[in-house]
Amino acid sequence: MDVQERMNVTSAPPSAPPLTFKDLAMIAWRRKAAAAVAFAVALTVAMVAVQRITPLYEAQASLTVDRSRQAIDFAANPEFGTLDYGLLNIQKEMLLSRPVLERAYQGGLTDNPAYEGLNDPVALLSKRVFVKTNRDSWVIQVSLRDEDRDRAKRGLDALVQGFMARQSERIVDRSRGAVEFLTTQTDESRKGLEEARLREKDFRREKGIQSIDPNQNELAQRLNGMIAQKVELERQIAGASAIVEQLHAAQKVEGPAERVRALLRINEVNANPLVAEQQQQLYAMEGERVQLAERYLEKHPRMLEIEQRLNTKRQQLEDAVGIVVASSEARARTMAIELETLSASIDDQSAKLSTYRADLISLFALGEESLLRLRLFDHLSTRLGEEQVASRLEARPVSLLNPATASNGPVNVQTPLLLLIALVVGSVAALATAMAREALDRRVRGVEQIEELTALPVLGSVPRVDAMLPLGRGGDADKPQEVAEAYRG
Q1: Does the structure show a pLDDT above 50 at 406?
Q2: 218/349 Cα distance (integer angstroms)
Q3: Model pTM greater than 0.90?
Q4: How big is the CA angle at 177 (ends 172 and 178), to the nearest 5 degrees?
Q5: Which SS3 state, helix, strand or coil, does residue 71 take?
Q6: 50 vs 39: CA distance, rounded Å
Q7: β-strand partners of 61
Q8: How many CB atoms lie within 10 A of CB 182?
Q9: Cα distances (angstroms) measured from residue 288 to each of 240, 292, 300, 477
Q10: DSSP string covering 85-139, please?
């Protein structure tokens, strides 16, 4: 079996091992001519590209957010010390806003040929302005790039001045708007307060409200007096009713004399002056009768006269007792009528007091409305005064820390770095070219590559001899000597 057949029946060779730096160096050395040409071309192209870069100068300035104490306390933001990183981002967005960039362009960049012929030169300017913020120091770094060093500084000055002017305009517009708004609201609040006070005054006059104390007003005092009078009248009626019951019970006794004696045992009757006088006169006549009875007989004219007088006096006493009884009954009926009338008056006065207290509740509501409107008016007046004072202050939240300064050299052209990049690009191109040439070359080189491709051991190798003579009949088999030795081995 020859070599070709053995290569056909042999299994596929294993995958090639990864290339090492030594392998790459050997490949580059074998293909040094192509690598050198590729390196030279890549280096030339890189240098030409570097030469075509337009140099840009950079001007830098720094701004700071003012966190110091304000001239007046009410002009300061109470939450300013706790504001987060968003405040710096807002200032950054304001610096990059179109109105500020337009002012910067009009202020110092109109003579730049790079902006000529553009429909929107501000768009190009926005790509040349860079803003960085520092949360720790609250410093804002602003930079602007331009083809001319002085123009870059001039443009950045215009940018900062435009930003400051825009900021002042916003503060003035805000202050003016706040003053106008607060003035309008204060006038409306004053009118509302006057109307509320007028409604309260008219309501008080219409309802006749003199005192706002629901328990110490005229109606309440009058009602309390009536209630006290009713209590006293009820007590008197209870006493009169008890006396009338006693009189009715005494009047039920049979016999005029016993009835009179029963009535006289009642203190109300017995203490009456008229009854007491009649009793004294009756007692005096009875004493006189006892004296006459000791001297005269019952049929004596004097005795008959005294008996007649005693009967008359007893009748007068009975009449006096009847008058007292009738008077007590009449007084009891009169007090009952007075109690009924007084109760009706108390009910009427209670209804008036309830209405009065309901009116007081309405008056309190009107008073609360007036008080709230007064507080609102005072607050708006205070805020209006504060805004009027603050509008006269030049208080800017951001101030210039370092003015614009331009770099001495272009910031986008760094010769050492660009040269290094060109060398790297040339080296990569040279190595890539060598690798490509190596991959496209189908020739087998060396014993190792043969063993790798065939997976067979090498039995021998014949060295290459330049200008070797033909072997055979006309030649010398021992010459050249290295070939002969290779065949013998």
Answers
A1: yes
A2: 11
A3: no
A4: 100
A5: coil
A6: 16
A7: 142
A8: 20
A9: 37, 6, 14, 214
A10: THHHHHHHHHHTSHHHHHHHHHHHTTT-GGGTT-S-HHHHHHHHEEEEEETTTTE
